[in-house]
Specification:
Layout (H helix, E strand, L loop, with lengths): L1 H55 L1
């Protein structure tokens, strides 16, 4: 009985490690995508500003 409980606790700890690891991976991916989006939007804004000033000039 005790052995089973110990094994169960070990499995839970392993699961927690995996969840933490996967959570970290997902977080990194999400952050990368967010950063990329911000970068793209900034570029688009710069291009829009450039075309505006060209038309004005």
């Amino acid at each position: 009985m005790n052995e089973l409980r110990e094994r169960h606790q070990q499995q839970q700890q392993q699961q927690k490690k995996w969840i933490f690891f996967l959570g970290g991976e997902v977080l990194v991916l999400v952050l990368e995508r967010e950063i990329r989006w911000v970068f793209v939007l900034k570029q688009l804004n710069c291009q829009r500003e450039a075309t505006k000033s060209e038309k004005a000039g």
